[in-house]
Amino acid sequence: MKLRTSTSVSTKHRLSQTLRSWLPILQADIESLEETLKDSAKDNPFVEIVSGSEVKKTSKKYDEHRYKKNSVSTEIEALTTSKKSLFDKLYEQIEAPLFPTKRSVNIAYEIINNLNDNGYFEGSISEIAKKFDTSLEQVERVRKRFAYLEPSGVGAVDLYESFLFQLNDFELDAQLYEVCVKLINDFENLNSYKKEPLFFEAVKVIKKMKNPPAIEYKSEVAQIIPDIFIETTDEQIKVRLNDTYYPDIVIDTDGVDESFDFVKEKLKGAKSLVEALSLRKETLSKIALSLIEYQYDFFTGGEIKPMKLDDLSTDLDRHHSTISRAISNKYLSCQRGVFPLKSFFATALDEDGETSNAAIKSYIEDVVKNEDRKKPLSDNKIVQMVNEKFNISIGRRTVTKYRIAMGIGSSSDRKKIYLLEV
Length: 422
What we know:
Layout: E1 4-7, H1 17-21, H2 23-27, H3 33-40, E2 47-50, H4 64-68, H5 83-91, H6 102-113, H7 125-131, H8 136-144, H9 159-166, H10 174-185, H11 199-207, E3 228-232, E4 236-241, E5 248-251, H12 261-294, H13 296-299, H14 309-316, H15 320-327, E6 331-334, E7 337-340, H16 357-369, H17 379-390, H18 396-405, H19 411-420
Parallel strand pairs: 1-4, 3-6
Antiparallel strand pairs: 2-5, 3-4, 6-7
């Protein structure tokens, strides 16, 4: 027997004219809603938009990568706030004696401009050499001086060179240093060096290195404020809109003669604005109720089932485009976390329409999370497991695409990371 569903927002039938007139209000995410309302009311002297008073601690943080990444591929959350901070940190270090000439300084600046968010160099050495009319060797010499800059490891072309750069941060005797270099240069065959003297000491050093090198400068995970709260108890599932975060629309006609046509027109517009905001709430409330109906298993611990926008469009008697606008940039908070509304619309992968691509992704994430760290599962093996589990037939390319989309590395990449785990 299903739990009862309830909502604190009444469902009323109104003409869709207001909704069509104020579609930007429906489409706006909750954080930009206030600005959208202000823009709509900017020419109305009788309307004031007052900020909502929801305490942000009610919301949870949602990171698209962390939501679908397993423990192996999850990155450490940022400690600072922007990529610009990384640039500033590097720019202030581009000076003598490491960069003694104007040309070396300019090359260094160009290298900085070709770093990605992780701090790795992804530019073209030949293009930089051509730009400054110098040799490839000169550009490489400048780039490798980044090994002595902070954050340590930045400017490397890959993980292994970053590790070599970071060795400069450790006070190692010559023998241990050489073992570390040997292990990093042949990281693919790390296990073959277990009998090497100082092997375990070298591994301890490598484990202390940052991956990626600019991890502390990566952008802070944005806080997501959900529009909808799904609250599950033993007896029922409740829908609650984030009402208190909503801006208030105040209509002030104190001392105004409402018989003038100008006033009448502006008051009509003000009332339409109030109605549009109310329709936004009602539409989202109805969407939440439909999600509970279609995705009941998910909200009680199961998987997301196949669902189309047309399902909601039919149920709510709204045009497909209206539903698409309504779920755009909107989030739902439940006991399992915070999710974009779009994530509940999954494609069916079997003939019966019972298995969704979301269920397959979740299963892949789970099997990888629990795999044998000494023998990570290949994509072919995962294909076999998926087909047996769900009694369907999907190909290796599909599994590979899902794995990459979830930020899960290949079996060989995961094996390398497992070797560095404590």
